[in-house]
Amino acid sequence: MAIIAPSLLAADFLHLQGACDLMNDSEAEWLHLDVMDGRFVPNISFGIPVISCLRKGTQKIFDVHLMIEEPEKFTHSFQEAGANILTVHVEACRHLHRNLQQIRGLGMKAGIALNPHTPLSEIEEVIQEADLICIMSVNPGFGGQKFISASLDKIKRLKQMIVSKGLDTLIEVDGGVTLDNAPEIIKAGADVLVAGNTVFSAQDPKGVISKLKKIA
């Protein structure tokens, strides 16, 4: 059964306690936290202080997605802030193998994210060091984008790579996930669905999470 990870990026930042309360009362297992620096992506979101505060409001798994340059400089700080999973972009890491070892060495799960244009060959030599691979199904930086349909084939090929290597690495899909396309995303091989606007813009967010969970 797939894991549902609502993305805080789509929440009302004036009422983050309400977002935590919603998560605590929902079937979602993870909270997806997009950290953007305005350099790697053309947007700035939130950082370590906000995550530290959120940690006090919920015991859900914190799935922290770093869309930042030089993530290795901040790994320990995110661990201290409460991250359970720390995902870095292959495009932002000059020494990806070292970055993944650093994350795991601090007791967190390590994830690798790939932008839509990045081929799977970029991670083939280090996939065994990752607990999670995040397939970006939109171009990173902004919420509310439409799912890139070519991502489905990429998910399938990634699943084949994982199986062929005898790994249990999770496949996460981030961007444009809806109630309509969730079934085919899961069928392609996804284990974790990141949903932002689909959840937080709904009249009944908990109901949407429940529906996604039933699909999963």
Q: Name the structural class.
A: alpha/beta
Number of domains: 1
- How is the CATH topology named? TIM Barrel
CATH class: Alpha Beta
Helix count? Answer: 8
| Count of β-strands | 8
User: CATH superfamily name?
Assistant: Aldolase class I
Instruction: Please state roughly what percent of the residues sit in beta strands, choosing from under 5%, 5-15%, 15-25%, 25-35%, 35-45% or over 45%.
Output: 15-25%
- Gyration radius from CA atoms, angstroms: 16 Å
Strand order of the largest sheet: 1-8-7-6-5-4-3-2
Low-pLDDT windows of residues: none
Summed over residues and divided by their number, the pLDDT gives a mean of: 96
End-to-end span in angstroms?
A: 5 Å
- The second-level CATH architecture is Alpha-Beta Barrel
As a percent range, the share of helical residues equals 25-40%
Give an overview of the whole structure.
- The protein is of the alpha/beta class and 216 residues long.
- It has a single domain, classed as TIM Barrel, CATH 3.20.20.
- Helices cover 32% and strands 20% of the residues.
- It contains 8 helices and 8 strands.
- The mean pLDDT is 96.
Question: What layout of secondary structure does this protein have?
Answer:
Blueprint: E1 3-6, H1 16-24, E2 30-36, H2 48-55, E3 61-67, H3 75-81, E4 85-89, H4 96-105, E5 109-114, E6 132-136, H5 151-164, E7 170-174, H6 182-188, E8 192-195, H7 197-200, H8 205-215
